[in-house]
Amino acid sequence: xDPLQYRQDELYIEDVPLSAVAARFDTPAYVYSASSxxxxxxxxxxxxxxxxxxxxxxxxxxxxxxxxxxLADLGSGFDIVSGGELQRVIQAGxxxxxxxxxxxxxxxxxxxxxxxxxxxxxxxxxxxxxxLIDRIAGKLDTIAPVSIRVNPDVDPxxxxxxxxxxxxxxxxxxxxxxxxxYMRLAEFSNLKVIGxxxxxxxxxxxxxxxxxxxxFVLALVDDLEQxxxxxxxxxxxxxxxxxxxxxxxxxxxxxxxxxxxxxxHRKHKLVxxxxxxxxxxxxxxxxxxxxxxxNEETRFAVVDAAMNDLIRPALYQSxxxxxxxxLRHEDSITWQIVGPxxxxxxxxxxxxxxALREGDLVAISSAGAYGFVMSSNYNTRVRAAxxxxxxxxxxxxxxxENLDDLxxxxxxxxxx
Length: 416
Ligand code: LLP
Description:
Elements: E1 4-7, E2 10-13, E3 16-17, H1 18-25, E4 29-33, H2 34-47, E5 53-58, H3 65-73, E6 77-80, H4 83-91, E7 99-101, H5 108-117, E8 121-124, H6 127-139, E9 144-151, E10 173-174, H7 175-184, E11 191-197, H8 208-226, E12 233-235, H9 252-263, E13 269-272, H10 276-279, E14 283-294, E15 299-303, H11 312-316, E16 322-324, E17 333-338, E18 347-354, E19 361-364, E20 385-390, E21 393-398, H12 403-407
Parallel strand pairs: 4-20, 5-6, 5-13, 6-7, 7-8, 8-9, 9-10, 9-11, 11-12, 12-13, 15-17
Antiparallel strand pairs: 1-2, 2-3, 4-14, 14-15, 14-19, 16-19, 17-18, 20-21
Helix pairs in contact: 5-6, 8-9
The chain binds ligand LLP.
């Protein structure tokens, strides 16, 4: 569901004009649609209604407490990658028993916090991690539920920085080591093996890599079963791509049908870790044009958001739509949409035909996933506010930082 639409030349998110958001909360601001997030979650959930499943929303995509709370209320579980994300989930009212813990470098304090919270499963990436979790669980006199994350060596056909299931990537256990590792699990008295996990990448547009990965996982599941290791669940990670421009993403129903068909008669519970699918197209980055300037060849629209607010264009050369918040009936000109940060890599969009004047508002679309969460304070810029809209209502779910927030943890150095 696209929450954006023009009404009389004014861009709205749900029933709120974006100009009203800027008037109340200033810019730059991330603005999210609650209905759009809920609709995406429900579509995913509905697609798998015929099979036992748990959706563990991938917190890293957008970890705002307002977003997590909304998803917790819808019954979502959560995929976390740090102790910080666990704390967010708990604070947002999420159920720890529906949390899976992914990541290639879990630290002792994070494992301990997750065991104390009683999470559903650790997605384990190596023998030494198994040893560490077993040791900590032993000290806490508890049993840790674990899955092994396997690396199927599948090319997901996405940007190399976000492909994770190739054998040269740091993630997962190689094919040849998976069975021996499972067979060693009996040695650990404080571990209980409950599942298998794989996540092959993000922004995946083709069905085939998902199916190839699932076939790989199922071969292991069947092999383990013959050896007497019966698993409860299969975690297929996240990765479903969304439309940023003119891509044709996989329909959720098509994805579900293909997964269920490949699963066949097997009764294992399915776990999914979608992030982008749930939030990407639910959010925009709202920004104002500070200055319009040109040289002989190029026209720049310098806006008040920058690469520190939204790094995807600079980091992955990603394309996100830029829309004027109030349409002007004037000729469009081709602009480079750039921020105030002192780097040539600081661009948000290239070659966009827009009718713009200084002071205008523009909205950068599809910014709900991997937007605010990847922002930084580079150039000592405060991070943007985050606003959630529902119907005619808007609520601030994260205040804009101020300079005192930024400097609070720093100290002058005094020569001893
Ligand atoms: N599960 C695991 C273990 C993951 O590593 C990820 C994403 C997900 C689930 C969620 O994937 P999704 O459904 O969102 O594709 N910053 C990049 C994307 C990084 C993805 C990292 N892992 C971007 O802006 O494109």
